[in-house]
Amino acid sequence: MHREKTPHESGYSMPAEWEKHDAVWLAWPHNAKTFPDRVEKVEKVYVQIIGVIHKSDDVNLFVKDDAMKAKVVKLLDEKDISLEKIHFFVFDYADVWFRDYGPIFLLDKTHRKLAMLHWIFNAWGEKYEDLMKDTRVPSIINQKMQLQCFKPGIVLEGGSIDVNGKGTLLTTEQCLLGRNRNPHLSKEEIEQYLKDYFGVSNIIWLKKGIEGDDTDGHVDDIARFVAPGMVLCAYEEDKNDENYPILKENYEILLESRDQDGNSLNIIKLPMPGFVGDEQGRLPASYANFYIGNKVVLVPIFGQENDKPALKIIQQVFPDRRVVGINCTDLVYGLGAIHCITQQQPACK
């Protein structure tokens, strides 16, 4: 029986997020269960995000139906957003978390060819049955794009991994080794999937994610590559904060970690916003959940004291990009922020 070549064997790998994009993918917010009494507020956040990002990245935007498309066109037009840069996809999707259920794009850098990965999305360990239908989204996209599509056949979300584009991948044990994802696989077997399908050779395992995170520890809230040998690591200075021991342990692991060539990494602390939430509990607010566009970096801020210091640190590591803070207090009520709702499509040329 003929075995299909893996992406790695076929010359594909996942580029770093700061490499050139052709587009960014988003899905317009509509789910009142995700954003109780906040859908309209979150729509305004999306208008702001699109208003900034469309100047450097085309926007591929999912809408549920033609009525929603007409509404979105009106909202964007009112803000003088160039609709030539917005490409609509009409499909009955459940929610906005494109990073986790959408395709992850791969690039064959030698032949400048694009491919996609279609992992299984099980709504973060079958937590939300009504969202599990979004695992179909990559297939819907590929009906139009007609790319080579690799299907590993296991559960994985895009927010659970981060790559430096040179062979190293960051993830967490809490998420990828959780029994609600792939209980039949060992750590070694999961590592082999990561190597085969992302085209990496080196994996750094952090421990846990932040409090309030329903994804079981997605890495895009705690540590992000910002250059091949540089990581911004979320760090809580307040020893009384419940995130303090979690983030301290991850930071110490990174200090001891090496890249794909055996070199130590430059680890830069990124402050946390502190407690964001209400009487019902803590929300997973983190400045690490930023999106790197072609010319801008969109950073979630929360009206907290550490907003400005965090933006300053991120601007220092991206001197050639404009860093823009987007108030995500309403968006994070859905338990995610800017990186969670975006997915980059690498440039082929």
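Next protein, fold it too.
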Amino acid sequence: MSKVWQIMKLGDVLRLEYGKPLPDSRRKSNGAYPVYGANGEKDRTDEYYYDKLSIIVGRKGSAGEINLTEKKFWPLDVTYFVKFEGEKYDLNFLYYLLSKLELTQLAKGVKPGINRNEVYSISVQIPSLPEQQRIVAILDEAFAAIDNAKANAEKNLQNARELFESFLSKIFTEPGDGWEVCKIEDYIKFIDYRGRTPEKTTTGLRLITAKNVKNGFLQTSPEEFVDPAIYDSWMTRGIPETGDVLFTTEAPLANVAQLETDEKVVFAQRIIIFQPQTSKINKKFLKYILLSKPIRHKILTCGTGATVQGIKASLLKKIEIYFPKSVTEQQRIVTKLDALSFETKRLESIYQKKLADLDEMKKSILQRAFNGEFTEA
């Protein structure tokens, strides 16, 4: 660094003050002032607890998250808010400094929390106030460009997803000519392992739970296993086959995936395996039926439960579905949907990588700024 940066403890630069609870009765959705929780604005109120621009640091829950405030605000008791000597430090410089420190890594405990004394003990380097302000101007300009690029990538990502969902919904909006309408139970066998959870082991046969079933695909994590010796005694309700459709009955309701392995696997509770009569319904076509918004809406409408929405098997079996009577026509549609799904996933991968790269670029720029690389010669 060509200009002097003073090495200090963060506790000598700023103070983290505790937020304060605010009862629901004193909150108003159209209130004049924001109410901040650990990860940002949570509500509004007509009262304020602090009347200067500050920085919210998540204390509990989303511990270590950083947010700039409005001039008057209410920080809840799951937060800290920053106080400092205004004539020595630039607020935005401190915001960028805290962002660079990644305080989330200090979070500990079942409900993650950070201890402010640990924050205070961090060594930091601080330049003069004019230099702080010059660096802030550079970072503001760079981050505005990055945020604009992220917004475009996120929009493109959403557009890619919506294109597939729109095409899928259009197919299943209503039965077409030559389509059959029936209840799920008419041509689909249920293999239901709800209400049972096998004892888990560190290795063995893969255990598939509702956590593995995402909307449209089966993910490997969390990886859980059971003793292979229990397979025959456990899988007495039916043996799944390659291509069978997996359906979650709650937590969450109506996630759908396809079993794409011929290996022996064991199923836990909250999953029903759909085995269609393949002379009537193509297995992959059934997956797309259940993924389509019109059919999902029917299923979700029949769901019950105030906290966790679920559906009874008896109601699920009565849901009406529809499909071309010709299995050949079903396969033709599947081929189109598979191609569009593949292209959608390809685009998603591109945009998700771009978003990740932009986040890394932000970190790199922050690192360079606080290494003194933006200091004038």
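About the second fold: The first helix runs from residue 10 to 13.
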